[in-house]
Amino acid sequence: MAQLSLRGIKKSFRNVDVLHGIDLEIGDREFVVFVGPSGCGKSTLLRLIAGLDPMSGGDFLLNGKRMNDVPPSRRGIAMVFQSYALYPHMDVYENMAFGARLMGLDKAEVEARIAEAARMLRLEPLLLRKPRELSGGQRQRVAIGRALVRKPQVFLLDEPLSNLDAALRSDVRLEIARLHRQIGGTMIYVTHDQVEAMTLADKIVVMNAGRIEQVGSPRDLYETPANTFVATFIGSPRMTLVDVKCEGGRLVLPEGGSVHVGALPQVSELKLGLRSDAVKLDREAGGEGFAGQVVYTEYLGDNAYVYVRLADGTLLAARTGPDDLFEPDHMVTVSVEPGSVHLFSAEDGRRLVP
Amino acid sequence: MPQLRMTGRGLWITVLIVPPLAFVALFIVYPIFSAFAYAFFDWQGLRRGDFIGMENFHAVLFVEPYRSWTLNAFKNNVVVFFALMVLQNGLGFLLAYALWRELPGARFHRIAVFLPVVLSTIIVAYLFKLFLHPLFGVVNISLRGLGLGELAQPWLGQSNTALWSLIVAQAWHMVGFPTLVFLAGMQRIPGEILDAVRMETESEWVKITKIVWPLVAPSATIVFTLLFVGAFNWFELPYIMAGLDGSPFGSTDVLGLYFYRTAFGNVSSGQQNFGLGSALAVLIFIFIALVATVITVRLRAREIQL
Questions:
Q1: Contacting residues of B for A52, CB less than 8 Å apart
Q2: Interatomic CA distance for residues B201 and B205, integer angstroms
Q3: d(CA B116, CA B130)
Q4: What is the pTM for the complete model shown?
Q5: Contacting residues for B72 by C-beta, under 8 A, at least 6 apart
């Protein structure tokens, strides 16, 4: 059982506020991913949960017990660091045994736990090696193994894949997902990579500038982003935002055409959010929709993304079939699927519901 | 056919290297080898006598009174070495740890600890001699002022405190050096490794003994070796604070003083013997070279790559 409650957590370094009151509930066995751009405070928040840095305000409760003043080693939390942070002078076995022995476990129990972790992570042939004799992926598995043998209630993973090459990254990602199913602990995972967030998380916490922008399942975040930050952060390529006016039930781009998207909220201006699969390109210029000029095409094998410049200068990404080639500078008409657009307030970027 | 013509670059290198090489050869290499040679001759003052083989070595090691003097000086060097190992290097490690943990005032203390190292040994030795003066030295005056007058004593004038007074002065003088080296070693430890330890224990003792110490061990190699060489070459500080005789009663006599006294004579002893002195110098040199090599090789093998 591990139920985490973060209540109004604040952190400032000297007089710079890094976190401005974070409220978050994390349930047992959940896989939660903190995602956000560099400097948004996600790693800082993780370190506060670990207890490595003191909080400047707020409370952190684990299973209802206040943890603010409990030292990191007594919180029942294990952490996997970005650089793995293996002890260079100990072999793999010792790296895993070190923490377990400090917990006061007897010798047989330590051995049994290491054997179990080594089997789960396929580390058996590596137990007598020093960290410097291991590859990046192997070090990563040792770092995870070191956390496993402590049988913590909560696992914290700080950008664990960022030091791995691209090919290995998806393998280890699958491994972490499998591990979570197998051991069922609560995992909190920090990344700036939205693909990792989408593929791993039960619950994504999108952070920006020391605040939580939205909490939800990957599907919630993709389908109903709460604001333009979440909308453009989640999904690849980025969602295009077009500043439009509402005139007579249509969304009008000044001197650039107009589209009809169904019911509209009672505002005069808004931001229209278009994902690449919500638009269609028509080679005939001057049709029903926005006018645009092709800038370039990204061919990806199974499909292609065409980037189109609209009348106000916005660059819009549209997904097309791999054989649908558009020449640069070609004039096209951009039409939208009424049911798959997102509407946001022109003033504060919040999601608008008709 | 190798190219022997002197290029501009080659000329520069030659001009820059030859003078210091000549200097080293003349004033370091040559004296070492001549000392080796002197040790095998019988000397009458400054006049070289007959070749006598190993007799000088035999005399300083096995013939009284030289035998007792050699053993006494050597024993004192051993005490100095182990005492400084604890006082200077041990304290240096703890100071480095405190500075590294950024305890309050770390910026000031980082400089304060290293400052005495920059002072000349002459100054330090003379200052400590004044501090320890039995009548108006600051140590005894402070003790009396604190009402601990019965602890005030002639520190440098009695056999059981003299050597330890010198050791404390030496440790005060040089503690900044191991501190600096250990601090540099600690600063090389990645921050995430320390975070990883903190996730597993809050015991400073475990952190120091199981993680920090093994990881700064590479710095310890050089510190240990230099301390060993320094302890067995110890000369200036005892010379100034205790005099050439290692007074009182040889209690501060070390190999450096003993060699100097034997080779170059002394107002009180009046004897001067280049042969015996050279034999001593050669023995000290061989001993230091052998042990320093063993220390370096043994400790190097344990070094860890971060």
A1: 195, 198-199
A2: 10
A3: 16
A4: 0.79
A5: B250, B253
Residue A20 CB neighbour total at 10 angstroms: 16
Partner-chain contact A74 B202, CB within 8 Å: yes
Residue of A89, A102, A154 to mutate for B, most B C-beta atoms under 10 A: A89
Amino acid at A346: A
B301 contacts chain A (CB < 8 A): no
Segment B120-166, tens digit of pLDDT: 999 999 999 999 888 888 888 888 889 887 888 888 888 888 899 99
β-sheet bridge partners, residue A19: A11
The letter for the amino acid at B203 is S
pLDDT in tens, A201-230: 999 999 999 999 999 999 999 999 999 999
**Across A235-262, average pLDDT:** 87
Write the pLDDT tens digit of every residue in B222-261: 899 999 999 999 999 999 988 888 888 888 889 998 888 8
**CATH classification code of A4-232:** 3.40.50.300
Min Cα separation A89/chain B (Å): 6
Crossing angle of helices B30-38 and B274-301, in 10° steps, is: 120
d(C-alpha A28, C-alpha A190), whole Å:
18
Amino acid at B7: T
Q: Please give the structure tokens belonging to residue A27.
A: 């349930």
Query: Which strand (E) or helix (H) includes residue B142?
Result: helix B138-145
Instruction: List, in sequence order, every residue forming a beta bridge with B212; answer none if it has no partner.
Output: none
**ipTM for the whole predicted complex goes beyond 0.95:** no
Q: Which helix (H) or strand (E) holds B216?
A: helix B213-232
Measured CA to CA, the distance from residue A62 to residue A111 in angstroms comes to 29
For A284-318, give the DSSP string: STTSSSEEEEEEEEEE-SS-EEEEEEETTS-EEEE
CB-CB contact of A77 with A26 (8 Å): no
Collect all residues of chain B within an 8 Å Cβ-Cβ radius of residue A74: 202
Interface test with A, best of B188, B197, B198, B199 (most A CBs within 10 A): B199
End-to-end CA distance of chain A: 41
Domain residue spans of chain A = 4-232, 237-345
Nearest-by-Cβ selection for B199 from A73, A83, A88: A73
Contact B199 A82 (CB under 8 A): no
Strands A304-310, A211-216: pairing is unpaired
Domains along chain B with CATH numbers: 8-55 (no CATH), 63-301 (1.10.3720.10)
Structure tokens at A258: 């107009």
Burial category of B155 from C-beta neighbours within 10 Å (exposed 0-12, middle 13-18, buried 19 and up): buried
SS3 state of residue A211: strand
Looking at chain B, how many residues does it have?
306
Q: What is the CATH number of domain A237-345?
A: 2.40.50.140
B304 to chain A, any CB pair closer than 8 A? The answer is yes
